[in-house]
Amino acid sequence: MNNRYGTLASWVYNLDKPVGRSFGDIEYYRERLSSCAGPVLEPAVGNGRFFVPMLEAGIDIRGFDPSEEMLDYCRKACSARSLEGRLSRQTFESFSYDASFAAIVVPLGSFQLTTDVAAAKAVLHRFFDHLALDGRLMIDLDAIGGFLGEGGRVRSWTTEDGDLLTLTDTRVSTDYVAQTTVTHLRYELWKDTKLADTELELFSLRWWGVEEFAMALREAGFVDVVISGDYRYSEAPAKGCETISFEARRPQ
């Protein structure tokens, strides 16, 4: 149940982060990807929040996700807009394509779902191997400040049928040595004041130091690493920055 995005979790995600909702990343990457001369890959595509706007912008993008529930939302979003969504169920650790990509983009901290350092570095090598020569890898990471809260929030959403979905997050552990957090996410569906369904997931994340991640990229073979804060290309992250974007290139 770790980082699984089951039925209720995917439903809440789709309500909270619908297709097209931007945190600055959609506009930023639409511009960064506009000059790509080949296909683009989005790992952990989720419900299509980012993927669909890239398709609508004319970008040749494909995507994968380990959650079939999330992929269902993405497929429906593509179908509703008469878009061809080339999607598959795969994981960071084992994804495989015959084609090479001009760019691989992982927005909004999804890479941090891989909490084991060795596994994360292996994923970076896999990204490298799937890029064409001179292809670019683009990854967003959340700054450490987003990991240090205690949790305990209760949030709610009203469904299309007028029912209530709630999410309670409870921090289980923060490991400052391993740079990881583990949170219990309890999802509940309420119909006519009665609990109709519930789902518990473990949500694990790892934070990275800025130079630590840049070194990991170089170790994987990438060059020309550019680090940007809050979607301002090449502006170094500063104190209070929420999102740190890394862009690196596979050499020719």
From TrEMBL:
Domain annotation Methyltransferase: ranges: 40-135
Alphabetized GO MF terms: methyltransferase activity
InterPro entries in UniProt: Methyltransf_25, SAM-dependent_MTases_sf
Gene3D superfamilies for the chain: CAC2371-like domains, Vaccinia Virus protein VP39
A Pfam family per the record: Methyltransf_25
Superkingdom of the organism of origin: Bacteria
Transmembrane segments: none
Keywords (A to Z) from UniProt: Methyltransferase, Transferase
Record protein name field: Class I SAM-dependent methyltransferase
Organism: Aminobacter carboxidus
Organism classification: Bacteria, Pseudomonadati, Pseudomonadota, Alphaproteobacteria, Hyphomicrobiales
